[in-house]
Structure formats: structure tokens, C-alpha cells
Design goal:
single chain; six-stranded mixed sheet
Length: 234
């Protein structure tokens, strides 16, 4: 599929390469990756550890830059963007969900969720009201005052998803969101992400080795050794 067509893609990546320097040696993490995602899709990037999935998510989220290639997300050229523009892009467009939740242990669930709103300058009362609503949407109204240590792994991931969704991002990037969970909790998190995707229309891109996610994907990419080995037609 050619880059820059009139198709209304939310994400367009063409010829992405990422090389990290390790001393005098260049380590290739991504090789000629092409990827397209439409608004509202539930895209899954499947592959084993070390296949390049996390590196690709970091590029899509503006955390890192490609060494070569083209990358547009929600109309923003992430290759040409300045560091200040990338910071704004991440704040305004991207929600991140990680395998190990990245919650602050000293804060309760509600305070963990509202941190992005407080950082953006919203008042405490308004932030708490929006955070409580988002926790209700992930099924945790009754756990607002609990710290991460008082929550199960699945509940902690629900808090992390609520935090990622709070600023109404155009895309949620989830890196192995079920990787640290038992099968029942993992299936519950899959169901939650699909429900939020369908009800709110937020695009999800999930990098995983969990094959159960393939059954809910609207678009699938398979990665190995830094390359996309399979991509959907059209």
C-alpha cells in the first residue's frame, strides 16, 4: 500500500528502521517495517520477545525516533517533529499501557488515574470527578481508595487502562498488557479493551505474544527479527 494515499489512516508507517549503537556496533531493532491503522481499529502486533514489537510501539508513540523511514500519526510527522512537538504529541494523542502497570505505589487508584490531568493543569476537584468516572468505566468504582499493593494484578492493569484513557487519546498503545496476568485476568483485560474500543471508538494497538488477542483483532501484524512477516491485505 503506497504511503500518502487518500485513505483516512490514523497511522502510516513506511520503511521504518531503527538501529541502536552499542559501542562501535549498530544493533538493528527494526527492518523496513510498513504499517497502516485506521481510526477505531483494534490492531494486534503478535510476535515473540525480542521481535521488535516494543521498539515499534515506542516509535508510534513518539517516545523514540526511527533511524530511517516515514511515520505519520494523526497527521503529525513524527520524523520531522521537534522534541517539544513530540512532547505535545504524546500528551495530546497517546495513551500508554505497560506490562507492569507503572503505578505509583504510594498513591491510591484514583490519584494514580488523575495524574495526567493534574499535570495538564486541571483543578483537583474536576480531575477527581473525571478520574472517578473513568474508574467506573473500567469496573473499579469500589476500589478508588486502594493502593496498588491492595489490588490484584488485573485490577492494577484496569487502573493503568483508566489512566491511559483519561485524556481521550486518539490511540492507546498497549505493550504486553496481559503478560503478567493469569489466564482469567488476561481474558478479562482483553474483554475490557475491546469493550472500550467499540464503545468509545478509541484505536488500540496491542503488542503481545498472547494468541488469544488474535480472535478480537480487526488488523493483525506478525513480527519476527525486527521485520513484519505478515500483514493484512488492503
Amino acid at each position: 500500500m503506497p504511503f500518502g494515499t487518500d485513505a483516512p489512516f490514523l497511522i502510516e508507517a513506511a520503511g521504518l528502521e531503527k538501529v541502536y549503537q552499542r559501542g562501535d556496533e549498530g544493533v538493528v531493532a527494526l527492518r523496513n517495517v510498513n504499517l497502516w491503522v485506521l481510526p477505531g481499529e483494534f490492531a494486534v502486533i503478535i510476535g515473540p520477545s525480542g521481535s521488535g514489537k516494543s521498539t515499534l510501539l515506542h516509535l508510534l508513540g513518539g517516545i523514540d525516533r526511527p533511524t530511517h523511514g516515514q511515520l505519520h500519526v494523526n497527521g503529525v510527522d513524527l520524523v520531522a517533529a521537534s522534541e517539544a512537538a513530540l512532547t505535545r504529541f504524546r500528551r495530546d494523542n497517546i495513551g500508554f499501557v505497560f506490562q507492569f502497570y507503572n503505578l505509583l505505589p504510594s498513591l491510591n487508584a484514583l490519584d494514580n488515574v488523575i495524574l495526567p490531568l493534574l499535570a495538564k493543569g486541571l483543578g483537583w476537584k474536576a480531575a477527581r470527578a473525571r478520574g472517578a468516572d473513568m474508574l467506573a468505566q473500567v469496573g473499579l468504582s469500589h476500589r478508588q481508595k486502594h493502593t496498588p499493593a491492595q489490588l490484584s494484578g488485573g485490577e492494577q492493569q484496569r487502573v493503568a487502562i483508566a489512566r491511559a484513557m483519561l485524556l481521550e487519546p486518539c490511540v492507546v498503545l498497549a505493550d504486553e498488557p496481559t503478560g503478567d496476568l493469569d489466564s482469567a485476568s488476561a481474558n478479562s483485560i482483553i474483554t475490557l479493551m475491546v469493550e472500550l474500543n467499540q464503545r468509545l471508538g478509541v484505536t488500540f494497538i496491542v503488542a503481545t505474544h498472547n494468541l488469544n488477542l488474535l480472535r478480537v483483532a480487526s488488523r493483525t501484524y506478525e513480527m519476527a527479527d525486527g521485520q513484519v512477516m505478515f500483514a493484512p491485505a488492503g
